[in-house]
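Continuing the series of single-chain predictions for the mutant panel. This is the parent chain; the variants come on the following pages.
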Amino acid sequence: MMLKMQNAFIEIAIRTMAEADLDEVLAIENDSFSLPWNRDHFLDELKSGYAFPLVAIEQEEAIVGYICPRLLLEEGHILNVAVRRDFRGRGVARLLVERVLDDCRAGGGTVVFLEVRQSNKVAIDLYRKIGFFATGRRRKYYENGEDAILMEYDFTDNEAGDAV
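Parent structure:
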């Protein structure tokens, strides 16, 4: 995938996350979240039979983003996604989410769920553009008491062109 960065194009590839990636992933995680996952959280995802964590890498092989999804039977769930600060707003998160949707569809998924902070308007707008829609709210879901917006991507609705 090619992304435009400061009047130049940069190649972004997506591959399966490996344990050797965790130092770079944790650096992004710690820079992105007030209550970040620790190494054990990511190790659990790498070992889970339902999880398929992915990383986005640039042409120099540096990790610029990651996503931690799961697929259990026909239901996908995006648990965690973040992009390195200097790559935000460039389409990396969109590439990661679209890859997860493709993988879930190929694995027999019919729906993908996620939670997002109600204050994260950039992420909410991105998810809506991709085809997710809000289905509810989890009150005081986050450590600071902030609500989470529940969002869903339904493959049937989106394939029929009925996405909101």
